[in-house]
Structures are given as structure tokens and as C-alpha cells.
What we know:
Blueprint (H helix, E strand, L loop, with lengths): L2 E3 L6 E3 L11 E5 L4 E7 L5 E3 L8 E4 L1 H6 L5 E3 L8 H5 L10
Antiparallel strand pairs: 1-2, 3-4, 4-5, 5-6, 6-7
The structure holds zinc ion (2 copies).
Amino acid sequence: MKTFHCNRCEQLVFFENTHCENCGAQLGYLPEIKQISAFEVIEDGRWKSLHPEAKDQFFRPCHNYAVENVCNWVVPADSPETLCCSCQLTSTIPNLSTR
Length: 99
Ligand SMILES: [Zn+2]
Ligand SMILES: [Zn+2]
């Protein structure tokens, strides 16, 4: 299984984790660098990456992360998309409200 480290406290974290179990940092997947990053959530809802390869870049959670909790990818804060590149490809998550 692929493992990662929390960028804040170096705790071992797994791909599925949404929070670091040690320090509580928000975690998300950065597809650009294929790494899990720890984030500092700032007041306007954007997430600031603590990962050395994306340091001080701003992101926000994929819509499916924020609402459906089925995705842990993030998109750049200035992107017009609300879905990450993975969810855009598999965009037919059934609309639960149409039934
Ligand atoms: Zn941590
Ligand atoms: Zn997604």
C-alpha cells in the first residue's frame, strides 16, 4: 500500500486518510505531484499546502470531497472547475436528488 507522511508532523498517513491522526491536519491528494499533502485551512475556505513541492500554493477540495465525501483530491484555488480531474473523468456519480 502506498503511504505518505504528514507535512506538518511527519506522521505516517495513508492515501485514504482525510486528516492526520496525530496532529489533525487536513489532508488531500495533489494530482500534479502525485502526493498526499497536509493543508492549513484558511479563513476564506481555501487550503494552503504544506507540502514542500507545492508550498504556499492554494487549493480547495474537490466538490465530491466537500459534499459527498467520496474523493480526497484537491483542485487549484483559482481553477474554474469544482471537480478534480479524476471526478471530471468519472463525472456520472448518480445524482441522488433526482429520485
Ligand atoms: Zn500530522
Ligand atoms: Zn474528485
